[in-house]
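Have a think about this chain, tokens included, and walk me through the fold.
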Amino acid sequence: MRIHVLTPIEGYGTLASLFNDYMRGLAGLQFVAVPRQTVAQMTALVAQDAAAGTQHAAEQALPFYSLQVLDNALTDLHRCVQLAGLELCDFFKIYRGNFFDFAVGQRQELLEIHGSDDDGDWNEDGSIRHRVDAAGLLPFTLRAALAPYFTGPAARGEAIGSSQPADFSFFHKIVGNASAFSPISLLAAVTSEPLPLYQRSESGGMVSETLGDQLERQLNEDLQGEAVVQRFNAVLHLGQTAAALYATLGPEDAAGYQRLYNLVKQMDA
């Protein structure tokens, strides 16, 4: 049985580590949200809802759906931060902050990779036709290259600035109260019996966890969870600021794009 929804972010950066810590804090929700019914049981429940006018199937599906949306959102946001950072890094380090050279280079690279059905893009010998006119380079400007990574018409799924901390409040409550929503705590609540927990002693053996040890562990888990939420919110605030700045930038505002680059780097710092 597939018992997970949340997929760890691949990568070694600070943002990937933060998002993975955040998802680990939702292990308890994942534990109870993953469907365990058979297809026959699901079909019967949907039929019962239809006959009685109830919404039990939808209510059971909501936690799973919420986790899937979150998983997609964190994956997409991490990708957008990484790719926006790479575009801005190339602009300043490879193209030396030259907007014209960036657009020419972007056009050359994209045509080499994806081709084009426009005959005006090609010479008779099949080589790429050089263009220097503003209209021809407009789709390849730095602003156009960054558009898919910031909230707006060009974005698909979660992008930088799409969501703010308040939108994650449901998940924040769980991550910030890690001890109450851990799989062990939820399993104990279901069985109505305390589960015996053990820890390694100084001699290397396993001993039962005392009440004091349990309280200390739960306090540490909650403090760590609250710290993760605070760092998560800080990243979202930076994303909101970056998206608002991007929306105001003109096509050749070098100082503005430098500020944007700094904000994007801070999101993964």
